[in-house]
Amino acid sequence: MSLDMNASRYLFASFTRSEALATTEIVVSTAAAVILGSSLSMSWFSLALSVSGLFLGVFLVVMFTISLQVSSKRREVAILRALGAKRSNLLRAFLLRTAYLAIAGCVLGVVIGYCTAIVTAECSLLSSEIVGFAVAVSLASSFGGGATATRKLSDLKIGEILRQ
Amino acid sequence: MTSNEPILKVERLTKIFETDSGRISLFNGLCAEIVEGEFTAITGATGVGKTTLVNIIAGLERPSQGTVTVLGKDVTAMDDDSLTEFRGRNMGMVFQGSQLLANLNVFQNIELPLVIQGTDESERKRRTQEISEFFGLTRKASVYPVSLSVGERRKVAIARALVTEPTLLLMDEPTGGLDTSTVNILTPLLRGIHYLHKGTILMATNSFNVARIASREIPIMRPRLLMTCQL
C-alpha cells in the first residue's frame, strides 16, 4: 500500500458529518444537472445559470469540508511531516479523500438523476452526453474545492503545532 | 564520518520571537558542537527555548540568525522537501507529550516512520517487533494510545523514534509531565537506549536528575547563554 493510501488511512478514521454534507451536495447537484439538462422546458440560458449555481455550491461545500479537515487534522499532519512525510504525500491523501466523496456523490447523483429523468415525461432529452457533462462538471467542482482547501497545508507551522 | 567530526554543529544561533510585550531573543548567538556517539542534555528552566532549539535542529522551525549543520548539511538552508526527507532518514524525534496518532495501535505507531520511508513490509515488521520487545511493548501491540498510561505512551514515542536507527536522536522532555515512579522507570531506560542505539543523542530536559544520565550538559539561560563556544 502506498504512503498516500496509508496517510489517508492515518488521517481519516471515520466518515464525518461535514463529509456527509459534502457528499449530499454532490449527489443533489449531479442529479439536478442530469434532470435539468434533459428537460425540454429549459432554455440554454436558464440551464447554464442553474448548473453554474449548483456546482458553485459543490465547490464551496467541498472546499469548506476539506478546509475543516485540514484544520482538525493539523496535529496528525504535523506528526507525519515531522516523521518524514512530504507535503505532496499529505496533499494527495486529502485529494484522495476528496475523490472518494466526489465519486460516491457522482455515482449516486447520476443514478437518482437518471431514474428521475426516465420517469418524467418532460425529460426526453436525456442522453449519455448530458450525464457525462453532469459528471465532468461535478468532479471538476469537487476537485477544485478540495485543491483550494489543501493550500492551507503549506501554511502549517509544524514546530508550533507539536509544542501545543 | 570519523568519530572526531561533529555530527551536529550549531553556529551563532539566535531566534527572535515577536510577542505582544516586545521581541524576545533566544540563544543570543549560541555555538555548540556534538560529536558522534555523544549523549548530550540541553538543560534550563521552562521557557528558555529548549524545545525551540530541538525544533530548529530538526528543521521544524527556522532560526532568525545562525546555522545548524547536521551530518555536514546545513539544515537551515535546505528546502522543505529535502529537509523532510533528510529528517526522516537521519533523525529520530521524541516530541514533548509523545504525539502518537490516536487511530493507530502501538505497533502501527512504532512502524509509522518505516512506512513513510518505504521500507519493505517484512523488514518493517521485523524491526518494529524487535524494538517493541526491547521496550516491553509486545503485549500492548494492538492497544490504542488512549488506553495506555502516560509512561507507556512515552515508551512508544521513544520506540518510534528509534525504529529507523537514526544517526541523531532528538528527545524533547522525555520525562516531562511524568510522576516520580514513572521517571524512575524511564531514566534507566534512557541510559539503556544510549547503549542500544550507539548513536548520538540530544535530550532537552528541565530535570537535572535526568540530565545526569547524559555524558555532557549544555545549560541554556535567558537572556544570555551560559556555555563556552567550542568552535
Sequence-ordered SSE layout with sheet pairings:
The complex is a heterodimer of chains A (164) and B (231).
Chain A: H1 3-11, H2 17-37, H3 44-72, H4 74-82, H5 87-119, H6 128-149, H7 158-163
Helix pairs in contact in A: 1-5, 2-3, 2-5, 2-6, 3-6, 5-6
Chain B: E1 6-19, E2 22-35, E3 39-43, H1 50-58, E4 65-70, E5 73-74, H2 80-90, E6 91-94, H3 106-117, H4 121-134, H5 150-162, E7 168-172, H6 180-197, E8 200-205, H7 208-211, E9 216-219
Parallel strand pairs in B: 3-8, 3-9, 6-7, 7-8
Antiparallel strand pairs in B: 1-2, 1-4, 4-5
Order of helices and strands of chain B: EEEHEEHEHHHEHEHE
Can you identify the CATH class of chain B?
A: Alpha Beta
Average pLDDT number of chain B? 87
Order of helices and strands of chain A: HHHHHHH
How widely separated are the two ends of chain A?
32 Å
Distance between the termini of chain B: 18 Å
Q: What is the correct CATH architecture of chain B? A: 3-Layer(aba) Sandwich
- The number of helices of chain B is 7
Range of strand content of chain A: under 5%
Q: How much beta of chain B, percentage-wise?
A: 25-35%
Decide which structural class fits the backbone of chain B.
alpha/beta
Seen as an oligomer or otherwise, the chain set is heterodimer
Any low-confidence stretches of chain B, pLDDT <50, length ≥5? none
* Domain count of chain B: 1
Report the largest inter-chain contact. A-B, 23 and 28 residues
Q: How would you characterize the overall build of this protein?
A:
The complex is a heterodimer of chains A (164) and B (231). Chain A is mainly α. Helices cover 79% and strands 0% of the residues of chain A. With 231 residues, chain B is α/β, with parallel strands linked by helices. Chain B has seven helices and nine strands; from the N terminus they run βββαββαβαααβαβαβ. A five-stranded parallel β-sheet of chain B has the order 6-7-8-3-9. Chain B has a four-stranded antiparallel β-sheet with strand order 2-1-4-5, with helices on one face. The interface between A and B is medium-sized, with 23 and 28 residues.
